[in-house]
Amino acid sequence: MTSLDKPTEDTDQTPPGESGEGDARAVTEAALFEAFGGVRGMVETVVPGLLFVAIFTVNKDLHLSAIAALAVSLALVVVRLAMKDTVKHAFSGVFGVVFGVVFAMFTGNAKDFYLPGMLYTLGLALAYIVTTLLGVPLIGVVLGPVFKENLSWRTRNPGRKKAYAKSSWAWGLILLAKCAILFPLYWWSDTTRLGWVLVALKIPPFLLAVWLTWVFLAKAPAPIDVFAEMEAEEQAEKAEKERKAALAAESGEPEAMPGRHRRQA
Fold first, then answer.
1. pLDDT in tens, 171-185
2. Which of 5, 14, 202, 207 is the most buried (most CB within 10 A)?
3. Alpha helical stretches, state H, the chain
4. Taking a C-beta distance cutoff of 8 angstroms, is the pair 202, 39 a contact?
5. 136-232-150 Cα angle (round to 5)
6. Residue 141 DSSP class
């Protein structure tokens, strides 16, 4: 039974406003889960790199490590396709692995398997910071369609824009801190140590950024559903046309055709 089906004398003791706040948090959690792939998406980003460094640690064979990482990435895509699930997160993992394999094979340096991903992380960190400074926080651009608000928050929902700005700052600074750890290791450490540290830093910074985003957005004003607004406008236009048609039928006069005038008797 929905809340609309319940009698008005419902004895629910939920404090006023708490239900709405809980709904907002639930919607935010669902949107973040959809946007970032949830637990499964995290696993798909970790497994290829983990397999690469594990095999390389044992036998120092760049080719075998690279082939294994690429094979498991493709297998994850096949599994998603077989389950008719979204493949965007699995495909992003495949592209990252492919670039890493190409770099490593070209240079012959196993550490270069991680370089494309590190450069992507650095670029993403800068994108979060720069877009926030420009007044268009990247996290808002990413999550806007998920919340069905598109970019309405930029001009119509200042509280939500502020929350997106805080979230983008969090993502940018967390990713920059991650880069500050990884790049020195790339330059001065060996492949095995770099690989294990990178695997260890895959999930914790990501979870911290997602949690902060959830905190900021859960406290922000509700998103403006621009899709619902457009549907409402279309329904209103349709109802107005039907009303005019009904009035014309009742008066016995034909509707005026656009661009034409009825002759005077």
1. 999 999 999 999 999
2. 202
3. 18-36, 38-59, 62-82, 88-107, 115-133, 138-143, 153-156, 158-188, 191-200, 204-218, 226-251
4. no
5. 15
6. H
Phi, psi dihedrals of residue 245, rounded to the nearest 5°: -65, -40
pLDDT tens digits, 97-140: 888 989 898 999 999 999 999 999 999 999 999 999 999 999 99
Long-range (24+ apart) CB contacts under 8 A made by 15-18 are: none
- Give residue limits of the domains in the chain: 110-244
CB 141 within 8 A of CB 185: no
CB 186 within 8 A of CB 170: no
Q: In whole angstroms, give the CA distance from residue 71 to residue 258.
A: 63
Q: Identify the DSSP state of 111.
A: G
Give residue for tokens 């075998």. 64
Tokens of 219: 């406290």
Residue with tokens 């907002």, as numbered in its chain? 24
Q: What is the pTM of this model?
A: 0.76
Give me the amino acid identity at 133. Answer: L
Angle between helical axes of 88-107 and 38-59 (0-180°, round to 10) = 20
Positive or negative, the CA dihedral 215, 178, 100, 74 is negative
C-alpha 36/C-alpha 42 separation (Å) is 8
DSSP codes of every residue in 55-105: HHHHH--HHHHHHHHHHHHHHHHHHHHHTT---HHHHHHHHHHHHHHHHHH
Q: What is the C-alpha to C-alpha distance for residues 124 and 16, in angstroms, rounded to an integer?
A: 41
